[in-house]
Amino acid sequence: MSPSPSPTPDPLRPSLDEAIAIVRAGGVVAMPTETVYGLAADARNADAVAKVFALKERPLDHPLIVHLASAADIGLWAASVPETARRFAEAAWPGPLTLVLAACDDVPRQITGGQDTVALRVPDHALALQLIQGAGGALVAPSANRFGRLSPSRPEHVLEGFGDAPPPVLDGGPCRVGIESTVVFVDDAGWQVLRPGHWTAEALARIAGAPPRAAGSAAPRTPGQLASHYAPRTPLLLFADRAALCAAANEEDAVLLLGERARPDNEGDGRLTVPPPRCIALPADPQAAATALYDLLHQLDAAGARYILAELPPDTPAWQAVRDRLTRAATPA
Q1: Shared-domain flag, residues 202 and 77
Q2: Is the separation of the CB atoms in 193 and 204 below 8 Å?
Q3: Full-prediction pTM beyond 0.85?
Q4: Domain membership of residue 113 as a residue range
Q5: What tens digit of pLDDT does each residue of 207-221 get?
Q6: Which are the contacts of 160, defined by CB distance < 8 A and separation ≥ 6?
Q7: DSSP 8-state secondary structure symbol assigned to residue 237
């Protein structure tokens, strides 16, 4: 009896060695990180970076984050590293924190959106670090989705999000953190949070030994600052009050609640007519909710609903990142 033939390799699910070869040849691979999947390309290869912009349909003035293999490489990209930035890197790298610093003169302005600052981070994911190391030491890796759409926290989100022409995906399973990194601008005058994420301003202030400075127009552009972003295709409506959400929902809608799912007999909630699986609850813990957020929104977006009705979390520091993503995902009034 002849042996069974070996399975045909899937070009959309490359091995690590194959992914390294693709990037070294100037191609693009969807890379897992602890935050979300990113479109990885050689940060020093202008043609490869241009492919990322084209694949995402991303405006050219939107900066990209450079993902490093080690904090020791920060000096190859940043012209100066203030003491506060060194403290942040020591405490949070590898991890979901991006530092925006003055760029070296040789940093391609293609990846900085034409600005004199560069965004840097070291991801906390073994496959990502192996890919970065094997492919040259520095990769751009914006979220692996069309510009403005829901970010991917699982490999299938990437494959489904690009229609008939998805990029190859280095499969690292579901993302542990689940939302994009906190972005912090640091210069000699202090520091400022430009995008909320896993690292809260309170935690960073303890590391810095000083509070953040007030938001100002002098801050550089960074990813995730648009008023409308991270959006599902299904219109998303936000409700600060669960009773109002339940009263507005009908069987044509999908619902994202916070904490335990409301039941028809919950006093004060009204009668919720949306059955599972189109009624889903985020965990009541902020970090767990962040991890689940995009995956649940992808599920609801695929449900064929008229609207997604979402309960807005409390306006507290712990919930700031989830509130930010939901607010930007919401359909403009």
Answers
A1: yes
A2: yes
A3: yes
A4: 16-208
A5: 999 999 987 767 788
A6: 166, 298
A7: E
